[in-house]
Amino acid sequence: MRRAVYHGPLGPLTLTEEDGQITSLGWTDQPGEGSPLLDEAVRQLAAYFDRRLTAFDLPLALGEGLKADIRRAMVAIPYGHTRTYGEIARDLGVPAQVVGQGCGANTIPVIIPCHRVLGATSLGGFSAKGGVETKVALLKLEGAASLLI
Fold this sequence. Notes:
The chain is an alpha+beta fold and about 150 residues long. The chain has 5 helices and 5 strands. Helix 3 crosses helix 4. It is globular. It starts with a strand and ends in an 8-residue tail after the last helix.
């Protein structure tokens, strides 16, 4: 397992790589042995937070089955846009609560943009450090503030 830290507006974010894929992004400062992939991930995060990148291009560990389907649905939400748990649930043929659980279990937030998934009448939750305030900050960064309920 290799790690690199990006220091940005949300504080330190530790990226982890295993077997040539990004496996996690956490709100910690845990440096480790880096890699070219992690260097690229840090570069892309910096560009994202500078508003120069709207779509990440990194190999991601999506998991398998429904977990992977939910993560792919999140990745498909364009920068500056949102979808609801219910909309994704309808597409996948599962209850909205399952989509919410999948968002909460996302190990690569920001890059897999679970912050772009909202409740039908609320912001929904956000399991990363700072909770919903961090979700709002990410949506504002992307210019999606007008979409906030």
